[in-house]
Amino acid sequence: MEFSKEYIESFIQPRNELLIEMETYAKEHHVPIMQLPAIDALIQLLRIQNPSKILEIGTAIGYSALRMATALPHCKVVTVERDHERLQAAKQFIARSEAANRITIIESDALEVDVEKFQSTFDAVFIDAAKGQNMRFFEKYSPLVPSGGVLYIDNMYMHGLSNLDIKEVPRRKRTMIRNLKTFTEWVMQRPEYDSTFFPIGDGLLICLKR
């Protein structure tokens, strides 16, 4: 049984003016942010987990970081982004929020960050960056997650492309989709994680570290 878009959206939680402004900005400037049902689901899962520190890979304009920090008033968020223009927008938006003092922004390619500088572990890692690099992100940052911690990976559907035969995927996106399929098979076979796929938004993969 499939639910209508209207029915699903009836459960979306109200957002404040700043978040709505960010949603409008993202749409107007073609910046990908999490779909509202998916971000609501992620936030609820994080409330249940109740992390004290989250690492986000892929800040964009800071929407997800701000949603997470706002929903979890005792949590600190560290977020990494390499796109300078988007990062400037993120800094401006976050500076206007009450959660600004709990969000640390790092301007860098996430694959080039020296993880030893963190000098701490993270209860949760949220990966929402270059989809073809998910395995490299996972391998690099999963050691920072202790037993009982969770890695959340968004965009596993890739707008339906990951469900297609590779020959049906546009040529310019085939390498990315191959990498995504390889990562999916690889992570689901990792014995040290209990991994579950949530078919919500653009697809959310949740990996609980044993």
From TrEMBL:
Binding of Mg(2+), residues: 128, 154-155
EC number(s) recorded for this UniProt protein: 2.1.1.-
InterPro entries: Cation-dep_OMT, SAM-dependent_MTases_sf, SAM_O-MeTrfase, TrmR_methyltr
GO biological process terms on file: tRNA methylation
Gene that encodes it: trmR
Task performed by this protein: Catalyzes the methylation of 5-hydroxyuridine (ho5U) to form 5-methoxyuridine (mo5U) at position 34 in tRNAs.
Family, per entry: Belongs to the class I-like SAM-binding methyltransferase superfamily. Cation-dependent O-methyltransferase family.
GO molecular function annotations of the record: magnesium ion binding; O-methyltransferase activity; S-adenosylmethionine-dependent methyltransferase activity; tRNA (uridine) methyltransferase activity
Family annotation (SUPFAM superfamilies): S-adenosyl-L-methionine-dependent methyltransferases
HAMAP family xrefs: TrmR_methyltr
Reactions performed catalytically: 5-hydroxyuridine(34) in tRNA + S-adenosyl-L-methionine = 5-methoxyuridine(34) in tRNA + S-adenosyl-L-homocysteine + H(+)
Lyase recorded as keyword: no
Record's subunit section: Homodimer.
Protein name from the UniProt record: tRNA 5-hydroxyuridine methyltransferase
Annotated positions binding S-adenosyl-L-methionine: 34, 64, 81, 109-110, 128
Superkingdom assignment: Bacteria
Assigned keywords, A-Z: Magnesium, Metal-binding, Methyltransferase, S-adenosyl-L-methionine, Transferase, tRNA processing
